[in-house]
Structure prediction request, 519 residues.
Amino acid sequence: MSIEIENPEYEHTEHKLTLRNLRVTDYADIKRIMEAVYHSAGGALPEAKFRSILKTFPEGQICIEDDGKVIAAAFAVVVDYDKFGDKHTYMEITGNIYATTHDPKGDVLYGIDVFADPEYRNMRLGRRLYEARKELCQNLNLRAIMAGGRIPGYKAHMQEMSPQQYIAAVKRKDIFDPILTFQLSNDFEVKQVLKGYLPEDKESQGYATLLEWFNLYFEPEKPMLFGAPKTTARIGCVQWQMREFHNVDDVVKQAEYFINALSDYRCDVALFPEFFNAPLMGLAGNGNSLEAIRHLATYTDQIRDEMSRMAVSYNINVVAGSMPSMEDGVLYNVAYLCRRDGTVEAQYKIHPTPHEKREWMMEGGNKLSVFDTDFGKIGILICYDSEFPELSRLLADKDMQILLVPYWTDTKNGYLRVRLCAQARAVENECYVAISGSFGNLPKVDNVDIQYGQTAVFSPSDFAFPHDAIMAETTPNTEMTLIVDVDLDKLQNLKNEGSVRNFLDRRRDLYKVVWLGDE
Prediction:
């Protein structure tokens, strides 16, 4: 909208004010204003944080411009307030001002900052921004707007009254506070006093008011009677014994045995190992390794379809390990997610091993996905891919909760590479990681005659999790299943309240991981 207004301090001066969302190109104006407003409190927000806020929640970042120049702005995020509670600090609830705490499914619009160019005083720009925030809150159907408010006038009265007494005096209008008085006039209520909210705020002596504005138009969603998002998930892993199979039906029957068993225990997912169908390579005759893997690829579509059928029939999601797939003359290693609703998606192995490239002429895929399932957001990295931390970091940035790693290793040191990297992925990305492998002998298959395997589920390392960050693990080289319940709520609590907070404390102003391939 555009409005022409006369500035009371500058007679005969016309203004053309426009309320809009902020853009990355506005940073120069934002920096200029913040340097003027916060010259004694650290100055402007770094550009990296400004860009992060805009990228995370562009709809919540609002400004007012005058003839193309930004003169006031407001930053905000949506949070699930129960995950923070009233006893939070400014840095905690704003993700160190990177807005990493933004939750599209949250219930509160939390104010990060509001500021205006000092040259435009008495134009009530702050009121316009607050009204825009209220409109945003209503349109998003959020319960409330909350913020921590500075009380810069308190420094002059700190010797004679407590923060609570000062706030009461401001409410009675006995004392004028440049921030609190304005917020109270905009229908905000003081919920309580926060201590240590912004320790560097010397004028407020580190105190702040916890402010709340209720959205009277808020309509609580009715609780779902079934199909609601799950807070726990039951992971079922298959430790698969390699043995001689005479045909594809033998492989399917063995897979169905495990799917049936895990379904009986009401698992949400069944994870099979990488190349669990490798015994069928022995049906290629006396050909070389390249001919054997290409022969194995001829069974992939049939096995994938059978796995999808069983996922629906047994009401369990199935990650069909991985299988070779020939597409337009190119061989890939592909993991299939067969959901129990009948849909199927694929994750291609990004990094073929030197053996796969040399002996099988296998190529890597160019797409990395986080999959939405009825038990949470999952990522799938096939074996060697788990040893590249950038991939899991990209998945974690898309809110992955569980990482599933089907693997196939021949020696114990090969297995330990996968295991140790999987444990590191769980710690650094604050997620659960399940690895599932195979063991046994395939004497009739060239170059893949031995395997070593031990299946496990790992957690982050903090007080809410097992002391060794291992949820459970199998006996090595024994055919069996592993069933583990994981608590997804603990992951979110860890991000906000953990002993260390790898996700929140990342120095986004110094480095980042960027995906350059297909989305």
